[in-house]
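Dear colleague,

Following up on Tuesday's group meeting, I ran the structure prediction for the two-component complex that the binding team flagged. I've pasted the input sequences exactly as they went in, so you can double-check that nothing got truncated or mislabelled along the way. The structure tokens for the whole assembly follow below. Feel free to forward this to whoever is handling the docking comparison.

Inputs:
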Amino acid sequence: MERGKLVVEKVGGRSTLTRCFSKYPFKFIVPNKAGSSQADAVWIYTITYGGGIVSGDSMACDVTVGDGATAVLTTQSSTKVYKSVGSNCSQQKMEASIGKDALLVVIPDPVTCFSTAKYSQIQNFKVVPESSLLLVDWITSGRHQRGEKWAFSHYKSTNHILLQGSETLFLDTTLLEHGRDGSISERLQDYQVIAMIVLLGPKLKLIQSQIQENVKELMSQQLRLPSISAGCSSESGGCFRLPKPSFLASCSTFGPKGTGVVIRVASMTTESVYNFLQDQLASLETLLGAAPYR
Amino acid sequence: MECGGEANDDKDKSSSSGSLRLWSQWQLLDSILPTGGFAHSFGLEAAMQARLVISPEDLRTYVIHVLENTGSLLLPFVYATAMSPDKQTWHKLDRLLNAMLTNEVGRKASTAQGSALMRVAASVFSETPSLKMMRSEALSSGAVSFHHAPVFGLVCGLLGFEAKTIQRAYMFVTMRDVISAATRLNLVGPLGAAVLQHQVAPIAEDLSTKWMNRAVEEACQTCPLLDTVQGCHSYLFSRLFCS
């Protein structure tokens, strides 16, 4: 099966798309002017024919960002994964290589798996110490308006950052699957969106510290010591309880000397995550020519 | 006519070493072992302050989710070192787990508990000198984080416990510690905690069976909400626990 290919390299001092090959069922769109022409970045939109991933679809793509170049991978709308037929599992696989002083920004809309869908994605990133990477990987519970909340069968997402071909810097595999001892929605309670944001590398240093500060401030306001009445049962009623925070986030560093930052988010609305991403990533406008998630 | 005598002696020896192993097993699973497990709440304290866990019913659900996530993410690491309790396997798995425990709070807790367990095991089980050797080597190299799950598998593997037992035991100590944290957080009383522990046991057994004997390539997290909430622990203004 042929794989899609994207190569962004510095040509004549500017980041340039030198190779672009896509194969059904996906396609790349590269607008000439995605943002201000002063910024040196190539924006690439991935779209799927039919607007979604159909049962059994399998897509693979290799992305190379050459030394000093900047590439942005994004989508036009949320990636919908349709219901699975039989035991078919849809798959997406991306192998990315980021060079020295290069920046890869992966800022898709969320994945939305419909009822009974089965989906797995693997994203491998090969980096060197001077590479920078911004990765957003997120999923919503489904078509909430239809009452589909975490009604899909299987979702698995693996993100792997490999340093200099041998050292695993970061590896996260999230698996959401109905189990005997509880459904997915039980594990996620009232939260409808989960997101993971990874920031790595010298070009994102400033934004890393800003986000850590912002999340700490946001969350400190949300977390309260349980009051004396917190232990009372629901039958007795009349206990005043603060509701659960509708937006939860936490930051952690990873890698030697904390070169990377990962933010995990759980939210009751998709909108609040879009707002969070807009706000936190706004300062990237100068680097990328346009602000992510506008 | 005493040809049965030697065979009986061997049987006696192996049954007595098996019995001795039981005493070691019980000591390892006893909460009185000074491994500092009491300092960690597995994200329960943060979950309470975020109002995700309020009632005893919430607690029961929370314990089950912690067990599920422990099974899916950590049991493969316990299994791997239990099956090959040697230096190379241990170091490799320790490094890998360090990259997979992406929540800083959980990562530090794992290191703290693993170091304590290794230290205690090296002192207590002196008849297994490789424990002490591996520990001092690892300490001087500075390249080992002493994550809890691989250390647990390593220690139990070197002591000759069976792999299934070791994995089940890891789930047991996790359950024991979360429920113990719940009593100190006043979420449930000591008697209620004991009742809860027994009620959850069949589910813990199911989860152990489901997640045991898997390769580390299959390790994954199944409760991302838990990871998010535990990561909030460092934002708590007032806290009882380290994690």
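The first strand of chain A starts at residue 4 and ends at 11.

Cheers,
M.
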